[in-house]
Amino acid sequence: xxxxxxxxxxxxxxxxxxxxxxxxxxxxxxxxxxxxxxxxxxxxxxxxxxxxxxxxxxxxxxxxxxxxxxxxxxxxxxxxxxxxxxxxxxxxxxxxxxxxxxxxxxxxxxxxxxxxxxxxxxxxxxxxxxxxxxxxxxxxxxxxxxxxxxxxxxxxxxxxxxxxxxxxxxxxxxxxxxxxxx
Length: 182
Hints:
The protein has helices spanning 13-27, 31-35, 56-67, 141-148, 161-167, 175-181, and strands at residues 38-46, 51-53, 76-84, 88-98, 116-128, 131-139. The protein is an alpha+beta fold. The protein has one domain (13-140): Nuclear Transport Factor 2, Chain: A (Roll).
């Protein structure tokens, strides 16, 4: 922007709402504060597991019983990219944590394994009237299951190296193809 340009760069309101939502979830772990960032009919879908909620009452239960109280104390979210549209934000990130507690939202029914997990994740956030209407979240359950020992390395699945490759794109690729050709 030049000095003579009268336009002002303003933060996107959707980004501010999303960042507040993330803070109330991960830092404050406050279900009611989190719900205040959402519409009266919100929807959250963790696509690979079909876990989440599709109305305010279900959301309150999901956040208080199956998500916010099940965030590992060492959970770290590493931002990779953010794409912002008029009514949508898409965040790509890597989550790192130790599977030290029950996590219904990621590994339903799996007791803590105390193993370290690194997983790439994409969240697509849709807004209506300045509030979050829908969160659609994608991640690879195979890489999570491999890292906690639920499946073995003989399957065509990779582990933490998937997250590391997202963070450092010069990491080697195509190992599964080479392994299959042996």
